[in-house]
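Handout, page 2. Input:
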Amino acid sequence: MTSETDATRTGAGQGETLEDMRATLLRMQDEHARSQVALREESRLLEILNQTGQSIASQLDIEKLLQTVTDAVTSLSDARFGAFFYNRVNEKGEDYLLYTLSGAPREAFEKFGHPRATDVFAPTFRGEATVRSDDITKDPRYGRMAPHHGMPPGHLPVRSYLAVPVKSRSGEVLGGLFLGHPDPGRFNERVERLVEGVSAQAAIAIDNARLYEASQAQLATRERAEASLRDSDRRKDEFLATLAHELRNPLAPIRQAVNISQNPDATPAQKSWSHEVITRQVQHMSLLLDDLLDISRITRGTLELRRKRTQLANVVDSAIETARPAIDAKRHRLDVHLPQVPVALDVDPLRVSQVLSNLLTNAAKYTDPDGQISIEGELLGGEVLIRVVDNGIGIAPEAMAELFTMFSQVQSVRDRSDGGLGIGLALSRGLIELHGGRLEAHSGGLGSGSQFVVRLPATIQGHAAPVSASEPVEAAIRKRRVLVADDNVDAGESLAMLLRLDGHEVELASNGPQAVELYDRLKPEVAILDIGMPGLNGYEVAQRIRQKAQRGVTLIAVTGWGQEADKARAAASGFDHHFTKPVEPAVLSALVGRD
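Output:
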């Protein structure tokens, strides 16, 4: 009996153990399967994180960087779609710009415009805590803003919602990562932490990419500046070479003419011709220097216009007279078309005529012989338009941008040029702009001719009273006692000789102390003083003379220093008049002999 009972118990015990073992084995298999799934998922997440970390750490292109980040968090969270929006400030103070998308076409969002600062979006763009909702449509902040009160019609369905701010190391909110899924309850705390981790890495990478972009921009700016400096230096070198060439050119005929005039065998006609050559070449050099001084004054804003009411026709006539030799030398035909009604302008007639003569001379230079040139005037609205048109070599499109630039000459133009510094157009534009006008250039390209248009404000049109053209009455010349002081012996002696030819009594000094001594002895009525003299400069000599004579003598400064500050200093020192070398002898002679 005992043995049967024990056997039964033993059998029962063995049966329970087998069932338990069977259940345990099934449970272990189920746990193993779940572990394998979890391991595979963990491995997938780690691989995504690893690849994302490597990619964003090495990426310096912000657009590619943000696309990588958006794709990564969309995959990590198992979201249906994800997006990154930039946080930027517009005229209304806020604007969230869609930058990258993952899991959805861009067209699905573009038709809705930029998101606004709704109660749901605003915390993310203010850099507050992460917003995670199992069903955003049930969030109390959802649907409170017109006009949509929630998602607009046609928007991708969103129930599960996760939004993480992306902040830089300095605390700036760069934007936000937004994840969505049409089913509720898809995002948990672990997903939130993963996305926040990627967001932190992304913020650092964005900072680095922005620093890189800034450094590249600075490098590009520096390279452009260096290239511009090199180009400017090159053009300045070319300009200085041209200047040297243009200033040397007149010296050869001047030297030759001097030799002819000094030759005892020269006939009176030859001597007269040599004097004409010298006068012509000196005038040419003077014009070159005047252009340089004018462009410098325009650049510094110190050039003053002498405006007066003048007729358009008179200005055009003066310009044609100046340019006529260049036009006739190539047998060009010049047509002039001006309004039938007299037009009066409030301009500096000398400067506007200077511009027009420069344009006409250029047209003559760069047009083949027997060409066609026209100058046309037109009243258009509140402007007077003056066009100088030619059928010359034209201007290449790539040369138009630098046509009015200092120190620049178009190569094809330079090859055909017969003189000049290449600053004429820059000077002309500056002079017209000082009048409140514009100078424009137009051309169909090489071989198609050119058209330059001067636009000036129209002041009066109609039957304007003609500008007085009465002939000046020649003033009687009075003989004076004159002191001339200049440390340049040739300059002083030649000026003294000219004044003596007018009948004046002239004494010459070559330095400041000698000028003061001669003044005390001669008691001149007029003193013409250079400024840069040794011993005492012209300002100091003038001050000493004024202390002795008060207003009993006319003091005239004739100097190479012609800036406005120089003129002001001359006036403060007691000078009555200031002339910049070279002064026109007739002007100086008239001033000295004037009552």
